Amino acid sequence: MSRGQYPATRMRRNRMKAFSRSMLAENRLSVDDLIWPLFVIEGEDRAEAVTAMPGVSRHSIDRLVGQAQEAVRLGIPAIAVFPSIDAALKDNDGTLAGDPDNLVCRTVRAVKAACPDLGVICDVALDPFTNNGHDGILRDGEIVNDATLEALCRQALCQADAGCDIIAPSDMMDGRVAAIRAALDEAGHENIQIMSYAAKYASGFYGPFREAVGAGSLAGGQGKATYQMNPANSDEAMHEISLDLAEGADIVIVKPGMPYLDILRRAKAEFGVPCVTYQVSGEYAMIMAASANGWLDEDRVMMESIMAFKRAGADAVLTYFAPRVASLLATVES
Ligand code: PBG
To answer: 67: domain CATH number?
Structure first.
């Protein structure tokens, strides 16, 4: 298509008035796009601030239920639950992950009792429960794939039994979506969705999260690089996504968010499936730190960052800003 040129064409004409800018916006943020990640700890009426994530705390179950109710009040469709497990309860194999009475399962039951219609998403990965901080089972210096799959299926099943709506495997083991799908189906959970962290990178941006869940420094020198993806790769992400879809994933996640917008864009364009992105802890921390110094306008860059995900193709965004974005959207609308 040939397009006119200056002076017949003036791009600024459409931008001159507020009504026109708003009328012609190609993308719009909605509270329906938000997923709120929450951290849970043992105890009662307890809240502990996460140092590297100003404004974010770990809450005991009773308080987390309060946050779930806040999500409902704000119209946020779903929360994602992440536990911070007492060090004494962790072991090499992350055994507690498969215990139906662990902190995550008790949280899900409490949230579902108080807010039955709120979507509840549970991470599947062993790292909150392993004493070495790895997402899988460590044997002789290697994260063993197939033995880990069995543990992940146990973990997914007890979370499903507790009442969660979406299982979100974030471990990056091979074959886990198929294994979890089969295990869920066999247990009669065929309607529980799988939202797979299909393209999850070995990223430095997860630093503050690891503080939040009390994951220690990782055993072994290569970090999570033998299972999470190399930040240099893009085609490999498409391969990962195609495998997870073939194995039965209903939704795919690209993670982290802002540094990987190109991956999100490709994923949406090439597969046309529901795509979610995760604005991770380090992205949140950067915006908060720069704003605290007066170097960035916090609300403005917060909204801009979420809009960038929408523009790139995200159907929903996991973000620690969820309640603030929701409140801001509500004030703009009213
Ligand atoms: C664990 C998990 C991680 C995050 C979500 N699930 C950390 C990791 O893989 O080391 C990161 C989230 C964030 O940084 O906000 N499998």
So the answer is: 3.20.20.70
d(CA 201, ligand 1 centre) in Å: 10
pLDDT tens over the chain, length 334 residues: 678 899 999 999 999 999 999 999 999 999 999 999 999 999 999 999 999 999 999 999 999 999 999 999 999 999 999 999 999 999 999 999 999 999 999 999 999 999 999 999 999 999 999 999 999 999 999 999 999 999 999 999 999 999 999 999 999 999 999 999 999 999 999 999 999 999 999 999 999 998 888 886 776 668 999 999 999 999 999 999 999 999 999 999 999 999 999 999 999 999 999 999 999 999 999 999 999 999 999 999 999 999 999 999 999 999 999 999 999 999 976 6
CA gyration radius for the chain? 20
- Residue 247 alpha carbon to ligand 1 centre in Å: 22
**Which candidate, 93, 150, 153, 159, places its Cα nearest to that of 127?**
93
Q: Which atom of ligand 1 is nearest to the CA of 284?
A: 15
Residues with catalytic function: 200, 255
How many angstroms does the Cα of residue 12 sit away from the middle of ligand 1?
Answer: 42
Q: Is 125 in the pocket of ligand 1 (CB under 6 A)?
A: yes
- Kindly state whether residue 3 falls inside one of the protein's structural domains: no
Residue 16 falls within a domain, yes or no?
no
Q: Does residue 216 sit within a domain?
A: yes
For residue 165 and ligand 1, the question of a CB distance below 6 A is answered with no
Does the beta carbon of 206 sit less than 6 angstroms from any atom of ligand 1?
yes
What is the count of structural domains for the chain?
Answer: 1
Question: Which residue range forms the structural domain that includes residue 306?
Answer: 28-222+231-333
What distance in Å separates the CA atoms of residue 246 and residue 213, rounded to the nearest whole number? 32
HEC-encoded secondary structure of 85-132: CCHHHCECCCHHHHCCCCHHHHHHHHHHHHCCCCEEEEEECCCCCECC
Does the pTM surpass 0.90? The reply is yes
